[in-house]
Structures are given as C-alpha cells and as structure tokens.
Amino acid sequence: MASPEDLTGVEKSLYAKREPVCPKAVDGKFRRLKWLIMAVTLAIYYVTPWLRWDRGPYAPDQAVLVDLAHRRFYMFGIEIWPHEFYYVAGLLIMAGIGLFLVTSVVGRAWCGYACPQTVWTDLFQHVDRLVEGDRNAQMRLAKAPWTASKIGKRALKYAIFLLISLATGGAWIFYFADAPTLAHDLMAGDAADVAYATVGVLTATTFVLGGFLREQVCIYMCPWPRIQTAMLDERSLLVTYKEWRGEPRHRGTKKASLADLELGDCIDCYQCVSVCPTGIDIREGPQIGCITCALCIDACDKVMAQIGRPRGLIDYATLEDCRAEAQGGEATPVLKTILRPRTLIYFAIWISVGLAMLFALGERTRVDISAQPERNPVYVLLSDGAVRNSFTVKIRNMQARPREMEVAITGLAGAAIWTDAGGRERAGATLVTNVPPDALAKLRIFVAAPSGGETRDEFSFTVRALDADGGSDSVDAVFERPGTER
Ligand code: SF4
Ligand code: SF4
C-alpha cells in the first residue's frame, strides 16, 4: 500500500510493525491468582466432557452434553428441550449482566484473568519461556541467525503449541457427542467428517490466535475492550500508575536520598513494562492495551520492597481515589467502592434473573401437551346425531423413563374421546397412553359431543402422569359444530 507523505515530503507508513512481546516471568499474589484461574478454567474446559451423570438407561450419561441430533441440552441434573431454550437465553443474560457487574467493579478483570484468549496466550507464553528461556533469552534468540539450535528450539516450541491447540480443538467436539465413543471413533478414523473439520478449524485458530496474534487480538480484533471502556466510571477499580507518587521518575538514586531529593518513587527500572503480556507502559495512563492482569503490580511491588518504599506505586485504584490521594486525601474503602448504587443495581438484576430461572426450573413439570385441530373436515356428523372433531395431540414425556399418561378433556359437556387405534367402542371421558422415555407421542384423538350446544365450544385437553412423580399440563382447544364453516 502506498504510504502518505507528510508536510516535509517524507513518506510515512500508516502501520507500525508489530514488535514481538516477550514478557518476563514474575511472581506475586496476582500471578499466583492467575495461575489458579488458569488451572481451574483449563481443567473445566478439558475435563467437563468426561464427567458422567447417571440418568438411567434411556438417556446419555454424559454430565454436560449438547445433543444436537436429539435436540437436547444436558447439564448435570438439568435437561433442556428445544421449547425450553429460554433457560439458555436466561443463562446468557446472566453472563452478560455478570460481565457488566464485574467491569463496573474491577474494570477488565474478565480480560485479565478468565478470557480464553488471555488464558491460552498466557499458557503459550509459558511454553515460550520453557523452551527458549525468559525475556532476554527470547529476545536474543529472535535476533540470532538460524542455527541448528534455533531451528530445534523453534520446532519444539511450535510442536508443543500444536499439541495444546489439538487438545483444545479436540476437547470442544466432546461437548457434542458421547466423549469416550467419539474419542475412539476419532482415533479409528470412523468419526464424521464434520468432527475432523471442526477439530482442524479450532486447532488452527488456537495455534494462530494464541501462538502468534496474542495481544493483537485484545488490542485490535476484540470488540469487548471498546464496550468495556464505555462501562467504566470514575469509581471502577483499574490498574493505575500513581503518577503523583512516582514522578519525577529517576534512575540510580540511592534509596536513602529519595525523599530528600523530592524525587518520585519510580526508579524507571522498566520492570512493569517487561512483565506486561501486551507490552504496554502503564505509566502512560489507562489505555486499551491494558487487560488489567495486574502483573505489573507484582513487578513494581517487588521493586518497591527492594528500594524500601511502600508497595502500591502501581495498584488497583479508582480515578476518584487517585485524585483524592494526589491532593493528600484518603482513598475510599474498597467495600464502599464496590457496594455503590450502580453495582448494586447490576447485582439485583443478576440475582433476580437467577432466582427466576431457579424458580421456573423447580416448578416445571416434565409433562407437556399441545393440540392442533384437523380442518379437513372441521367436523363430522355421526349416525347417532353427535358431532365429531379430530385433533393431533402431542404429549411430551421429558423424563428418562417410560411413563403412563392419562388424557382427559374438561369443559365440554357429554363429550367422549378415543384414538384411531382404540376405536369409538372404547370411547370414554379419558384415555391412557404410554409415552416412551424422553420422547414425544403423537396421537390422533377424536372428540364427540352432542350436537345441540354452541357452534364453538371452548374446552381443554389435560394430560396427567400416572406414576408417583405425577405432573400435569393442559392446553385450550375449540370444539366446532355445524354453522362454523368459513
Ligand atoms: S516497576 Fe515501578 S519503579 Fe519500576 S519503572 Fe515500573 S513503575 Fe517505575
Ligand atoms: S499494564 Fe499491567 S495490568 Fe495492564 S496488561 Fe500490562 S501488566 Fe497487565
């Protein structure tokens, strides 16, 4: 692409070449927290499809399963049918509001600790250190000529990246089929083409996003930082360099003379920049490249301990607190910062949605009925003078065992019902049918009623499970007599 010229006539590129980021290893409380979150999130991702959950002989025993073939979502003791998708929508709403809540309290904590891009990038950066050494060794190797040693190290590193990527892509598809069976089929070459294609695509994206693009995803590709920026306010906790305390920065001044010389606490050692996984300098102020991972806090706290100054030159702080501290005031207590109207409103909405879902889950019956009238013909006059309507009735048994169900009608005087399998000689006020486990039974039900009533009579079909668990459901329908033709 042609470069634009500035007023001096010198050509300038619109794009800055990416400088590889080689973050230095650091230890500290936030690093240890990141280790913990990484271990938990990776364990959840890789192990969950292998957890078993006994649902009896008629349902899969995988604890978490998106069964696309049978259109079911299993999550431990909960089974979601397609018509109950609002529970999944509720979970997504909770996740969204939860992110708003976390962002308004601790800024981009999601980005810094739990986002998959962060977790896998962090993992890949540890592989970098494991194979090539820490920051300085990596930078030296990057500039070194292509010797056998460099080729060997790079080959080993990319092989480990590939293995991690393959495990990541492979784990994903186990959420959509019985994991042990699918693993066996994959190894034997018997799995469906779409399974291999999905593993291939996810392996490639993990390899590229975690192995190469890394911080560029956070800075240029992901829309979430932009949205989050709009959600922050002056009382959100952010990783902040306390300029009022650190400036004027200086190098090589002995610790005893710091206060005398009226210098700031920052000794310009560059440690906060060296450990930053996105390669930014937090001393330049809040910026979109900061994922608030707090590793620079760990690095700077260590430096402060070495030069005998209090920790927290870089720390979680609100803009409001920084202003107050700069003028000699006190920071607001953390609890007061967290418990403010905005966060309490988010929390109230979040907990209300959660409680509403829990209530709905507790109340739902695992029986469901729907009825569709047959319009051709709308009614039939029987030889005894009665009028017959017919309906397609669907009964869902949402439990993993066969159940006996009784269907009845209410609100239609003198009516009798029967199925085409039973015949009119077995007509009665109710009928009983067996519904297979975790299935939908479709019945053609005839309803006969005396001819002398309203031309359109509203009534209800009711279904009731006859076993100890019970449960019932009903649906409204209309019985039509002569005079209703349109
Ligand atoms: S680590 Fe602390 S002292 Fe060192 S440059 Fe960063 S802010 Fe200054
Ligand atoms: S500036 Fe600090 S908190 Fe922000 S990304 Fe870098 S190390 Fe993490």
Automatic annotation (TrEMBL):
Segments traversing the membrane: 33-51, 85-106, 155-175, 195-213, 344-362
- Going by the entry's taxonomy, the superkingdom of the source organism is recorded as Bacteria
The signal peptide, as residue positions, is none
Keywords assigned by UniProt? Answer: 4Fe-4S, Electron transport, Iron, Iron-sulfur, Membrane, Metal-binding, Transmembrane, Transmembrane helix, Transport
Tell me where in this chain the 4Fe-4S ferredoxin-type domain is found: 254-285
**What Pfam families does this protein's entry cite?**
Fer4_18 (PF13746), Fer4_5 (PF12801), FixG_C (PF11614)
Q: Which PANTHER family match?
A: FERREDOXIN-TYPE PROTEIN NAPH (PTHR30176)
Protein name (Swiss-Prot/TrEMBL): Cytochrome c oxidase accessory protein CcoG
